[in-house]
Amino acid sequence: MVKSADIGSKRLINLAPDAWVKWVTQRPEVVAKEILGSEFQWINRETDVLVKAYSTTHGDFLVLNELHLHYTAHLPLRMRAYAALAQERYRLPTYPVLVNILPPPSTLTIVNSYEQEFLGLRAIQDYRVINLWEIDAEIVFQQPLPSLLPFVPILRGGGEASVMQRALQVLRADAQLNELESLLAFFASFVLDTPLVQQIMEWDMAVLRESPWYHEIEERGILQGARRQLIRVLEQRFGEIPHEVEVRLERESVEKLESLMDSAIAVNSLEEFVVILST
Q1: CB atoms closer than 10 angstroms to residue 222
Q2: C-beta of residue 59 within 8 angstroms of C-beta of residue 73
Q3: Helix, strand, coil percentages for the chain (3-state, nearest 5)
Q4: Rounded to whole angstroms, how far apart are CA atoms 183 and 6?
Q5: Full pLDDT tens readout for the chain, 279 residues
Q6: For residues 35 and 10, is the Cβ–Cβ distance under 8 A?
């Protein structure tokens, strides 16, 4: 059995911080100096990793890394706030990077900047966006990028059993990396259904439950299941559901969806259900 391990964002980036900062900044001369504390007064998130980096051209600066399982609409504001907090605390220029692990719902558009204008004043924060499903799996092996090895199955071209086996061999060949087998198996379960994946998952479910991503996936799974069940009931009763109704259901909590399920069973028309949805 693989030993218990921290498989959060900081642990992954700390595997090869130099390779990571070169990749996210797209500048081969950049090196990582140290991983800094990302706690800012009352704010502390396990998905945030702040790296002090150095470039011969730009000197010392910060690379603020946000790794998120799913993109959400509040992330642009979050990127603005964290970039400002990091720069204020460490008095260094900040390069913010948002890494999205899984594609968001079609109702969300991923943006790479925060912009707001209020009473003639503007607030703007640009940041780099990296969508892992757009990254070629081969890059992980060529550069190499050990921090991305657990994500290989969900990268472009990584959803093959042979590619997962290749990533697994790399992990098992390094004592520092083999504790990430369970995370590799977890993401492989999104695209593969093989005895190998199931075997690894059985070994390491206890380890996966320690990851902040596991809890987010679990919560989102419950939410998506409740939403799908509600839509199925509505379709069985009233036929095809308008897209705008599905969009509105994307915003609701599990508790609200459960309440709406009772309404979906009781109402006499879709229009009546929409009225309740609007309240």
Answers
A1: 12
A2: no
A3: 50, 20, 30
A4: 11
A5: 333 334 477 888 888 999 999 999 999 999 999 988 766 554 555 558 899 999 999 999 999 999 888 888 889 999 999 999 899 989 999 999 999 988 888 888 999 999 999 999 999 999 999 999 999 999 999 988 989 998 999 999 988 878 888 888 888 788 778 777 777 877 877 776 655 565 554 444 454 555 555 666 566 666 777 788 888 888 888 888 888 888 888 778 777 888 888 888 878 888 888 888 887
A6: yes
Beta bridge partner(s), residue 94: 62
Question: CA angle, corner 190, sides to 186 and 193, nearest 5?
Answer: 90
Whole-prediction pTM value?
Answer: 0.69
Q: Which residues pair with 131 in a beta bridge?
A: 100
H or E element that contains 67? strand 59-70
